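Figure S4 source data
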Amino acid sequence: MAGKAQAAREYLTTYGRAVGGAGRRGQAAMKEACGVGRRGRGWKAQAAMEYLTTYGCALVVIVIVLAAFVWLGVFRGRETLPEQCEVGNGIFCPSWKATPAAVQLTIKNARAVDIYVCDVICDSRKTDGTTGLPQGVAQIQNCGGTGKHVKSGGEAVVSSLDGSAGAAFCTDDGSTPVGVGSRYSGPVYMAYSEPGAGTAGSARVQKGMLIAGVNPA
């Protein structure tokens, strides 16, 4: 009986030591997997460095791109737009000139009929829905058969100095000319008539777009 008890105690002692060793090894493995201890601290530091490196490089790229945009003038708006003149409806303006005193357009007529251009207005104010001209500019009368004759397929130079119902120069407010060295970007209005129109009739109005630097007169 005593022998059996002794054998039982020895068995339990051996089994307990084995279980205890396995438990300690399991705890160590869990600590290593969860980042506890020296190896865990090193892994966290490495992850932090990778995070800072990645986002730091992204920030540097963003700064470089913004600097390039500033250098290219992307944020300067209309000052960087290419100069252009568009009228439409078969009428073109291949060349132009703007000064503090006047605006001058070369009108090319690609329509099937001749036209008579009686006014050119360069004004960026809102368009009046009734007259088709800038707000504050009266409807243009007595345009039939008057003004610059531009034959079908031909071209001619038309200047606001010839007599304009609006401001003779390019303006943003109707009274102040756009200064030398600045750029006008806005509507350009061409008042014209076709052959056979009575001299007392209202002018037809064609609204276009003009982007032009203002040069000395």
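Figure S5 source data
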Amino acid sequence: MSKKLETELAKSTIYNNRWKANRPESWATLKEARRKPDCERMRAYYAENKERLRQASADRYAASQVENRRIAQEKRAARTVENLVRRLMVRPRLTPDEIKARKAEQFRSWRERNLEKCRERRRENYAKSREQELAKATEWKAANVGACRALAAKRIAAKKQAIPSWANPENIQAWYDLAALVTEETGITHHVDHIVPLQSNLVCGLHWEGNLQLLTANENHRKKNVYWPDMPERKRA
């Protein structure tokens, strides 16, 4: 389009807009006069071609739906591939053994940070199902006689090696006699416990009268070999 024609069209547009703004009533009348013939003509055309127009509209809608579904599927597929690539890039593929080791390490780390909570939960569970726990222990001992004998022999050997020269056998025996007497008088099982455990990952105590104390069976089972006076702070945590 030439510049001259563009200029004329621009002037004509400006003139028409001014005329519409200055004569709104005339413009409304003119629009109404133009619209009526068009509306009548469109109504007549629709009445003559009603079925064909409806079918054409339905075909266009169906085609658009198919196209929309195709586009949506392509977008979903692209997002899926993108997410998979991102996951593979961020987290390398691990073997089942590596996954198992990672979970075990995570649990071990969490247990070290929440050792007291684990102990409390263990004590609560034991109190709720004490009879079942004892039955399981008895069943395990019956099915693993060899293992029980090996553990007993290991403890006896450790106790023999842990007896110092200054230990008094009579005083040691007095602790065990006291435990038996208290158990008989109270009806509550009492054990002679080593204050510093004979066997532990960090310390090995001695079997002498100064390292013995009287505890109930439940207290002794809770204590095990994981607590003693002046133990390292990292072991307490």
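DSSP finds ten helices and two strands in the chain. The two ends are 86 Å apart (CA to CA).
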